[in-house]
Amino acid sequence: MPPGKRLVLMACATATCYPPEMFKRWVRRPGVQGVLASCLAAYLDFALRSTRWRVQGEANLAPFANGAPAVAAFWHERLPLMPALWQAARRQGAGIKGHVLVSRHNDGQLIGAVMRHFGVGVVLGSSSRGGAVGSLALLDALAAGGIAIITPDGPRGPPRRAAPGVAQLAAISGAPVLPCAAQTSRRWVLRTWDRMVLPLPFGRGVLVCLPAIAVPREGWEASLPGIAAALSEAADIADRMVG
Q1: Residues of 37-53 as b/e, b for ≥16 C-beta within 10 angstroms?
Q2: Contact indicator for 14, 35 with CB cutoff of 8 Å
Q3: If DSSP codes are grouped into helix, strand and coil, which group holds residue 207?
Q4: Domains and CATH numbers, the chain
Q5: CB 125 within 8 A of CB 109
Q6: What's the chain's average pLDDT?
Q7: Residues 216, 233: Cα–Cα separation, whole Å
Q8: Cα angle at 75 between 70 and 76, to 5 degrees?
Q9: Among the listed residues 80, 102, 90, 60, the one whose alpha carbon sits nearest the alpha carbon of residue 187
Q10: Cα–Cα distance between 229 and 233 in angstroms, integer?
Q11: Which of the residue ranges 41-45, 114-118, 122-126, 198-202 would you say has the lowest mean pLDDT?
C-alpha cells in the first residue's frame, strides 16, 4: 500500500475508535492540532518534493512571481497540491509574498498551520465570520505587491461554484485573477465534499496557470462565470496532462 494512503487510513481508523463527537473534541485540542499540522505538513512536503513537476503556462505565472500583485485562485479540491505552485513561483521570484484566506473554524486553523510551513502568510476570515477583516488584510497584501490565495468554493462548497469574493477582491484591488490548478499521476481522492486530491510520493505532476483575468471595478459580477470556467478548465487540463 502506498505510504500516503497508509497514513490517511491510519487516521481514519483512529477516528472510528471513538464516537464522532468525542473524536472532534479531541482533534480540536490545540496540542493535538499542532501535532496533526506538523505531520501533515511534513508528509505533503515529502510527497510534493518527490514528485517530478512541470509548469504549464509559466509565462502566465512569471509577472506575478516577479512582484506584480494577483489573486491566485483554484478549486478547494486541489489545495494539498498547490504548495508546489508556490514553490515554483518562489524559484522565479525570491521576494514573492503570498497570503491565504482561511476559515476561523478548526479545519481552517489546521490548513493555516500547514500553509505557514510552506512560507505562506495566513489571514483568518470567512464569509460568515471575520470576512470583512480578512478581505481588508488581503487588500493590504495586494497593495504591497503580494499575492492573495483563494479557493472560491471553500471552505464548505458547493464544489466548483465560485463565491463572489474572488471577483470582488480583484475588482477593488485592481489585481487580476490568476486561474491555477495542479494534478499528480499518483494520488488518492478523498471522500470529502469536494473530492480532495491527496498527492502520493514519486509521481509526475503538472502545475497549470492560465492567462490572468482582469476584473472591472464596475460590473464585476459579470466576471464571476468566466473565473469559475477558467478554474475548471485549468483543473481539466492538469487532469489530462497526467492521466
Answers
A1: beebbebbeebbeebeb
A2: no
A3: strand
A4: 3-242 (3.40.1130)
A5: no
A6: 84
A7: 22
A8: 110
A9: 80
A10: 6
A11: 122-126
* Contact predicate 179/233, CB 8 Å: yes
The C-alpha cell that represents 30 in the structure block: 490545540
Task: Cell numbers for 200, please give them.
Answer: 502520493
- Please report the sign of the dihedral spanned by the C-alpha atoms of residue 222, residue 228, residue 229, residue 230: positive
- The type of residue at 72 is A
Tell me the Ramachandran region of residue 206: left when phi exceeds 0, alpha when psi lies from -120 to 50, beta otherwise: beta
Sign of CA dihedral 148, 76, 84, 41: positive
Taking alpha carbons only, the member of 183, 79, 103, 98 closest to residue 144 is: 98
pTM, two decimal places: 0.85
Distance linking the first and last C-alpha atoms of the chain:
21
**Is the pLDDT higher at 22 or at 102?**
102
